[in-house]
Amino acid sequence: MLNELPAEKAYRVLESGPIVMVSTRGTDGRVNLMTMGFHMMMQHEPPLVGAIIGPWDYSHRALSDTGECVLAVPTVDLAETVVDIGNCSGDALDKFAHFGLTPASAQTVEAPLVRECWANLECRVADDGWTRRYNLWVLEVQRVWIDTARKETRLVHHQGDGRFSVDGDTLDLGERMVRWRYLMD
């Protein structure tokens, strides 16, 4: 039996990518973090990520002014912190200090890495042509940092409406990816 969901709930089916935190540093030097679930890989070379960051997000101004950010990828041990970060605004508090997170220097952007995260992607805006109409930023990944010493590597995936799933077993079908082998290590 098929049950219908309202069309505006499409994200509950399609948006299962890992939750990320967007780190920015404004032209005034102030750093901020926001939680983001709406993002997507757009292409491999150059590596482009589409990210929805609208004017309702405090980070929008810093991204608009500087054209750069860090996408920090937290693991399941940070899930509650990530949700709490998404429930408050950077205009009211220093989220790094309030949530006990450590900003670390990036190499190609001024926005800080988040030391407690498993991965950090330094990004620059590649195309802001869709921001006014769709709040969609096209970000080009400049560098990727992975904390190989972390024991916890399970990612948290947004399913909408406060529901999340956590990485489980990995199904490795790399040997069958013959057409895309050049993308594999």
TrEMBL record:
SUPFAM superfamilies in the record: FMN-binding split barrel
Keywords from UniProt, A to Z, are: Flavoprotein
| One GO MF term attached to the UniProt entry | FMN binding
Required cofactor names:
FMN
> Does Flavoprotein appear among the keywords?
yes
Residues in domain Flavin reductase like? 12-164
Q: Which InterPro entries match?
A: Flavin_Rdtase-like_dom, Flavoredoxin, Split_barrel_FMN-bd
Q: Which family does it belong to?
A: Belongs to the flavoredoxin family.
Report what the protein is called.
Answer: Flavin reductase
What is the native source organism of this protein?
A: Lampropedia cohaerens
> Source organism lineage?
Bacteria, Pseudomonadati, Pseudomonadota, Betaproteobacteria, Burkholderiales
